[in-house]
Amino acid sequence: MRAAVVCTTIFDPPFLAPLCANLEKYARIDECTIWIIPDRKTPPAAAENAALFQSRGFDVRFVTLEEQTAFLARFPDIQPLIPYNSDNRRNVGFLLAMDQGADLLISIDDDNEPRIQDDFIAEHNILNRRTNTVIDSENGWFNICTMLHVQPKFPIHPRGFPYRIRQSKPPVQRHRTADLPVGMNVGLWFDDPDIDAITRNYQHFNVTGWDERTRYLAPGTWTPINTQNTALLAELIPAYYYIPMDAPIDGLRIDRFGDILSGLFCKKVCDQLGFAVRVGGPICHHRRTPHNLFKDLHQELAGIALLEELTAWLEQVRLTGSNASQAYLSLADELDAALPHFKGYLWGHDARAFFHKVTHGMRAWISATRTIGNARPTTLVTAC
């Protein structure tokens, strides 16, 4: 299957060189298009580096701001909902991947570098194959960080993992037989783990390895899914809208959870459609860019609190629909109907207003993907 690797960046992205080296080593150059979606802060060096690899035979598309604007003009509902100066710009790349006929979408963050030891494309290309064994757990959640070798040794959880689950006794994990296609693949990370700012402020952790045992999560078994190193079938792109952030929530501002919300929502759609989610390889080195951890904590706190009740609702809500668009629309409708009934901490006017904007964006996203499904691909002249 043809892969589209999508990244947005405000740097000269360091992932490009190791990714291209990986494609070359495993003879995957002709199986992959790399979409780099710049923002207003992206330096000229990013375009120059993309042009260099393009001249070496790699299909690298550096999509200028002018080209992004022209492309998004086809989608008047979603265009104003993809802001500048935001990692939300990756939505442009997701739509372009769908528009250009990719079979699978691979989202990668600009500070994640594929390892030369892993065939990056082949590992993600597990999608749509079938698995005969899945895992579930008695509390419905699987902590992917238990797959990692972490120093110092301490039980950590991925960013977005509910605290109401962390505080319970570790669940019993069960393997069972199930003949299911794989809809999403979640690659893990070495070095700096993707954990929340509460944990990160407490201690610096380093991932040195993993147990090398791939898992397939059954429908109804949850884990947070970020955009660092994640693949999904193109047919699921209508359910993979990267949620905009930076909204006021009772004196805080919700941020740094756009990928977590998009991953949880897409997982719910996978459950509805009968897809398993694979967790394991390929591995990326997470060379995390410098962060003010107290600022991260301020930006994450509202999301951490709201996810307590939202994830409990996601576990139980029932969707309708036989494809991604129908199921995602069902999820938007159900979320709108549920918002007045959320009563937990921070679930006041601001939170409900924010999630009403989220559901509005979800519907606009469905409209954009349906427009693509009914039209010919855009002719794009990428200016590298």
Summarize this structure as a short list of keywords or feature phrases.
384 residues; alpha/beta; Spore Coat Polysaccharide Biosynthesis Protein SpsA, Chain A; two-stranded antiparallel sheet; 11 helices; 35% helix; 22% strand
Instruction: Give the rounded overall mean pLDDT.
Output: 95
CATH architectural designation:
Alpha-Beta Complex
Query: What is the CATH C level class, in words?
Result: Alpha Beta
Tell me the number of structural domains.
1
**Uncertain residue ranges:** none
SSE pattern = EHEHEHHEEHEEHEHEEEEEHEHHH
Taking the sheet with the most strands, its summary is:
10 strands, mixed
The total count of helices amounts to 11
Structural class: alpha/beta
The rounded distance between the terminal residues' Cα atoms is 26 Å
How many runs of DSSP E, i.e. beta strands? Answer: 14
Outline: globular
Name the beta content range: 15-25%
CATH topology: Spore Coat Polysaccharide Biosynthesis Protein SpsA, Chain A
Classify the helix fraction into a percent range: 25-40%
Taking all Cα atoms into account, the compactness measure Rg is 20 Å
Compact description:
The protein is an alpha/beta fold and about 375 residues long. The chain is built from eleven helices and 14 strands.
Description:
- The chain is globular and about 55 Å long.
- Helices cover 35% and strands 22% of the residues.
- The chain has 384 residues and is α/β, with parallel strands linked by helices.
- It has helices at residues 16-25, 44-55, 65-72, 90-99, 120-124, 163-166, 197-202, 258-273, 293-316, 324-338, 349-373, and strands spanning 3-9, 32-38, 60-62, 104-108, 112-114, 130-137, 148-151, 173-191, 206-210, 215-217, 229-233, 247-249, 252-254, 276-286.
- The model has no long low-confidence stretch (mean pLDDT 95).
- 51% of the residues are buried.
- Strand 1, helix 1 and strand 2 (32-38) form a beta-alpha-beta unit.
- Helix 8 (258-273) crosses helix 10 and helix 10 (324-338) runs antiparallel to helix 11.
- It contains 11 helices and 14 strands.
- Strands 1, 2, 3, 4, 5, 6, 8, 10, 11 and 14 form a 10-stranded mixed beta sheet that branches. Strands 7-9 form a two-stranded antiparallel sheet.
- The chain has one domain (3-373): Spore Coat Polysaccharide Biosynthesis Protein SpsA, Chain A (Alpha-Beta Complex), CATH 3.90.550.
- The longest helix has 25 residues, at 349-373.
